[in-house]
Amino acid sequence: MNVIKTLAAAAIGLGGLFGGQVSAEQTPAVIDAPVPLLQAARIDQLMQIVATEGARHGLGLEASLFPGRGGPAWELIVSHIQSPERMTKRLGQVLKSELSDDDAAAVAAYLSKGAGARIVAREVDTRLEMLDGAVEAEAKRVSTELRDANPEQAALIDALLNSLDLLGANVSGGLNANFAFYKGLDDGGALTGGLGEGEMLAMVWAQEESVRSATEEWLHGYLTRAYAPLAEDDLRDYLAFSATRAGKRYFAAMFAGFGAVFEETSYDLGLAAARFMTQDDA
Fold first, then answer.
1. Does an H or E element contain 238, and which?
2. DSSP 3-state assignment of 16?
3. How far is CA 181 from CA 66, 138, 265, in A?
4. In the chain, % of residues over pLDDT 90
5. Distance CA 264, CA 38 (A)
6. Which of 23-37, 76-90, 131-145 is predicted least confidently?
7. Nearest to 92 by CA among 37, 50, 129
8. pTM, entire model
9. Dihedral pair phi/psi, residue 81, rounded to 5°
């Protein structure tokens, strides 16, 4: 097996930051986090979806990296690594450290009503719908038709994408997650002879074009499906919010939080996979 080629294929797709109401049972587990903000942003629901995406990817690593060696043991490990409660807690910690109480309160107030609440609902519902591959494919197809069908709305979606640097942030997050995955594999002894950091970085940057292309296609499909039913005034309102001090800090904190989540889970997946890759066949 060409390990380097296989690892490159396995790592692509580990990132994805954009996208959740916190249940009463789970709120105590999110220690020192801005709970009203997590509730308004529906982070708990979002993390359930992200965990499902991550688990699918994690389970798929067995076939490419250690065929037939994982089984129920690997399923259990992936379930732990991709635990939505664990990821929610980590995201909450980053939001708490990155946002002042006033900014967190302002964002929670905006996302709890009006355009903010409608947009959050569409974002989370669409993320859930796109777990279905057929829905994802349809969303991507429709996004290419929107520019002719509704150029004004397409322009607003592009403005949001550019204003928040969604493409750049997601690509950067994906590449960082891929690097963390390689680091986990290397620390676990799965890479024969070990790889230097420079070599791992070179492997990651070799994926940049494919990661960017896949991310851009997914984002356009996702945003089009999420925002197409909304009034253009809602999108303008959201764009204005994103330009406020609280809005800017919120989105920066969310990217930092999801970046931390994906880097940690990716490293843990790599470290765990290394144990299965290096175990004896006997």
1. helix 232-242
2. coil
3. 15, 30, 8
4. 78
5. 20
6. 23-37
7. 37
8. 0.88
9. -60, -40
